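Dear colleagues,

For the upcoming journal club I promised to circulate an example of a predicted protein-ligand complex. I picked one with iron/sulfur cluster because it came up in last month's discussion. The inputs are reproduced below in full, followed by the predicted structure.
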Amino acid sequence: MIDFTQKTFGVISLGCDKNRVDSEKMLQLIRVKGCTLTDDEEQANVLIINTCAFLNQARKEAIETIVSCSAERSDKLEKIVVTGCLPQKFIGEIYEGLPEVDVFLGIDDYGSLFDALEKSYEGDRVNMVACGQSLVTDRRVLTTPCHYAYLKIADGCNNFCTYCLIPSIRGRYRSYPMEDLLSEAAGLGEISELILVAQDVTRYGIDLYEKKYLVNFLKNLTKLDNIKSVRLLYCYPDMIDDELIAEIRDNPKIVKYMDIPLQHSEDRVLKLMNRRGSRQGYLELIEKLRQSIDGLAIRSTFITGFPSETEEECDSMCDFLRLAKLTNCGFFAYSREVGTPSYKLKGQIPYGVKRRRVKKLYEVQSEISSAYLDGFINKSVKVLCDGIDYDRGCFVGRAYFSAPEIDGKVYFNAADAVQGEWYEVNIVSHDGYDMFGATGDYCDE
Ligand code: SF4
């Protein structure tokens, strides 16, 4: 038997915030076992790389990380463990191709981490992908700054967008039981902002409770004293109903912000993408949300360069942005993924054209965002302090219309500011993305 309490573990988490939550649960498993945790890879005896494999680019990053960790391995490194989406979907390809990896585990196999490592220390390479020993824990080691955290409320997806590998990697939508999630949230300590994530948060509960349960869950979640506010990411447009709108409007703990990935604006392309909805329907939804929820910020993401998308359709998407006036947007070039239905579609668009269209969309959105931010100049904005930006020599935080890591920031001077607290910041300027200002008590002498 290996005495794991003598081992030091490091975890590299690649990909999205949902993967980050899985990594945090794995860190908790390791901590409970009595092992030492390190964020310095050179000190690790066991290095776990939790991978993403949703896009070509993510797979490339995962493989490069594995190869470089192996090439630069310190004398202390004994085992490399690769977990998550990459082995889950591509174990057949990577088992032989990555001989430097000692242990492979899939997305639902984290519970077998120590069994797999025991076998590996006996001398075998170990493939326990799809062994079905999932990790059940309502505790995590947070890797975010301690005042905000993500809460993953479900895994998998039933939407089957034709460009997306996620349903084939992560399987059908599975909500986590509400009681478990409430217990997990209660155990996070004092959290200024809890960010709900899933491939689609609006579908929460249908598989478990046979009806939409997100509103019920939000009502219970926001009763927890340690959770000061809740932000929603990944809302599927046609799942947003009146009950959810009313809850966001009336519940003071829910941030007046919704992330609604629309992916495209043109009906023909949306149909090819197997996205439910239409240009007109999306504009009506945005209008209804704005009418219903005062000051609501809406973020979205769009894909351009989908097979057969014409220049005119991209221009129409620009017009849609001018009409919708969304608060924040991310634009991505379509990625042709083997195994997705859209891989076989005719009319694949050259890479250079896709990049040019992304640039065009960003230029349009930049004008819209600038006009939006102009409205805050010489006004006071409530900002959640995320900490100190040492490069700029000031504090950094976010207004309610910005989620961490994906939206703009507020850089501000203050006599003092504490991470996780809210401050009134007088905005003096912006650069079209970030804002700059100072608290009233700041004295520049
Ligand atoms: S909603 Fe579509 S894009 Fe998002 S995870 Fe599901 S299938 Fe993929």
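Two points we might discuss: The two ends are 63 Å apart (CA to CA). The chain has three domains: 4-127, 148-374, 380-439.

See you all on Thursday,
B. R.
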